[in-house]
Amino acid sequence: MAPFITKFEPYEPEEYVIDKKSGTKSPARLEKIAIVGSGSWGTALARVAALNAAEREGFDPEVRIWVREHEIPGRGKLTEIFNRTHRNERYLPDVDLPENLVAVPSLKETVRGATLILIVVPHQYLPGILEELKEPGLISSGARAISAIKGVEVVIQKGAPQGTARIYTYPSVIEKELGIPCTALGGANIALDVGRGEFCETTIGVLSAKDAALWHAVFDGPTFRVHPIEDVAGVSLSGALKNVVALAAGFVDGMGLGGNNKAAILRIGLLEMSTFTLEFFPGSSPLTFSHHSAGVADLITTSFGGRNRKCAEAFIKSKPEYSGVKPEQRGKTFEQLEKELLNGQKLQGTLTSREVFEFLEARGRLEGYPLFEKVYRISFEEMDPKRLFEDL
Amino acid sequence: MAPFITKFEPYEPEEYVIDKKSGTKSPARLEKIAIVGSGSWGTALARVAALNAAEREGFDPEVRIWVREHEIPGRGKLTEIFNRTHRNERYLPDVDLPENLVAVPSLKETVRGATLILIVVPHQYLPGILEELKEPGLISSGARAISAIKGVEVVIQKGAPQGTARIYTYPSVIEKELGIPCTALGGANIALDVGRGEFCETTIGVLSAKDAALWHAVFDGPTFRVHPIEDVAGVSLSGALKNVVALAAGFVDGMGLGGNNKAAILRIGLLEMSTFTLEFFPGSSPLTFSHHSAGVADLITTSFGGRNRKCAEAFIKSKPEYSGVKPEQRGKTFEQLEKELLNGQKLQGTLTSREVFEFLEARGRLEGYPLFEKVYRISFEEMDPKRLFEDL
């Protein structure tokens, strides 16, 4: 059972033009990168892509990133500060960004003319964004997208017979809505560490060897190691479901339990992630979960360091029976904690937990996923967190 | 790819005798448990086994544990204190032990008459112990052993041609030396948490369904969940090799690097563990590593909380180029750190690292295991720890 890394030749421009006078050869067209989303993870990925675009043949060095306009009192507009200081002061303040990464306040102007579009937004914002991007002629023909969105789309028709609920990955939603091919990116990547250039790995779920070469050229670097595999759904699902398991890991931390518990929860969570994906996306591979950065490694990172874990720990600690908080901070909902702890960033795990729960319930398959079920019930139905370990 | 948990019927004594007068039925013979080893892990497992032996039909309630005699100044002999206070004051001081767990200073008296023998000692001590246990008649015929030893036995004949080096798991060494069947126990188990009765899982690599039922009856309990699988070598190898990866995790911590790095090291480490086992023990299953507590879960626990990680972090921090220590504490060897930090317990990872390195070198297979190779060279050949991420 060898890892199934996709084989590919290093990226090269497909066509060249030769200048008749000087005889110099240059690419017939340049790939132009646009980044939709400027949270901490979007900014960290934008930095990696902009560093590569500036150096690699075949790429337009200017990389545009969509930054929602925002007035910082006494300092001016966020995009202007971004383009003057080359920092995203709101979401990744301590990281220097390359000068060829340009903040653009208009979503449409960000993607106009782009051939490679990274979409990295909280999944609740995606429908509105896709609506705007569907303007005829806005997206270049031949453009390609890559999704780093963590989540799933669940469709349950009220009153429809049980078993008709459907689930989609975001790459497939983007493909359908925008009519361009979409791959997936996921991996053990804490944004700040990537921003600082620390070594890490990421996985790209690709559609073909050509796709692998292209996205590898966009993101791979000496400290950001990109492995393409042919499993778009697996990479996408793993990125969504690991946040649900990270909530369980946060519950363990909040209850003050030890490493054995957390390891057991991670092991069982990884199994449910893999089983869920294979049950509903049968073309996926279990190796995506057991062997790749988007699977086991991302789960570990997220369950020890991510924001879902952090909020889930705070959620438990805010309960009257767990000590360490003042009475006025007790019994908080995830909605409150998100506002207090995340500085405007969005929590993905709770949303995904609800969607996965509703999907499994509508399909009559809850009993196959006791951990996913319990995370939902502890989060939203006041189940005693101590029951997390029952029936696993 | 379903998990391959072994199916078995719950344990029942094989034969009963009926008292003619009263008509009461009782087991024809009682299983008698002996624990060879009283470090923190041995004591925690002994506690679980003794609780079960006291309650389950077919078991002699007295469980004996071998405790090397030791005089505690002003307080008396360690075994006497153990049997009076029902605590192992040296290695698991905060845990109350059941009264039917009896410390015995003589190894031979511990195992005499036992039918189930748990061997849980640092692997460097095993040869001497087996020598003593080989006394004719000491081990009951029909006895069975289970090994919770973390390590491998490597045999390299000086001057022999390359490729003839051999590697053995400890269950196979014990089987060969004592002539009784031996299974393996491993899992995500920090001794103190198990001692406190926190929820955790463990994996038993068994030889048959009968074996599964028996050892499940010895160890399984409400908070100590035992899963038997038919992969003795996989469970045993995983327990040994995870300590090598935990050293790498400690190096990452010592260098002050983030969660991405550590997750990448764990992912690559898990792959090398699995690949190594399948290469040299082809009957093993990759699922042992990807799906079971003895694999991925134990690796996580050990790499975040275990003693190998702790000493490896201290090893890096003692180097002049890493801050945080006084000059007189700089540049320590693992031997020094083991003495200073482990209160008499032994480090298994460095020993296993050396054995695995020598074995791979003798087989000409180092290039297949770059992480294992680097852990050895950083530990013993002063390789710069920053090179850990090269060529992975």
TrEMBL record, chains A, B:
SUPFAM superfamilies: 6-phosphogluconate dehydrogenase C-terminal domain-like (SSF48179), NAD(P)-binding Rossmann-fold domains (SSF51735). Residues 32-206 form the Glycerol-3-phosphate dehydrogenase NAD-dependent N-terminal domain. It catalyses: sn-glycerol 3-phosphate + NAD(+) = dihydroxyacetone phosphate + NADH + H(+). It is an enzyme of class 1 (oxidoreductase). Its EC number is 1.1.1.8. GO terms for biological process: carbohydrate metabolic process; glycerol-3-phosphate catabolic process. InterPro entries: 6-PGluconate_DH-like_C_sf, 6PGD_dom2, G3P_DH_NAD-dep, G3P_DH_NAD-dep_C, G3P_DH_NAD-dep_euk, G3P_DH_NAD-dep_N, NAD(P)-bd_dom_sf. Residues 231-389 form the Glycerol-3-phosphate dehydrogenase NAD-dependent C-terminal domain. NAD(+) binds at G37, S38, G39, S40, W41, G42, A191, R307, K346, Q348. PANTHER family: GLYCEROL-3-PHOSPHATE DEHYDROGENASE, GLYCEROL-3-PHOSPHATE DEHYDROGENASE [NAD(+)]-RELATED. NCBIfam families: glycerol3P_DH. This is Glycerol-3-phosphate dehydrogenase [NAD(+)]. The lineage of its organism: Eukaryota, Fungi, Dikarya, Basidiomycota, Agaricomycotina.
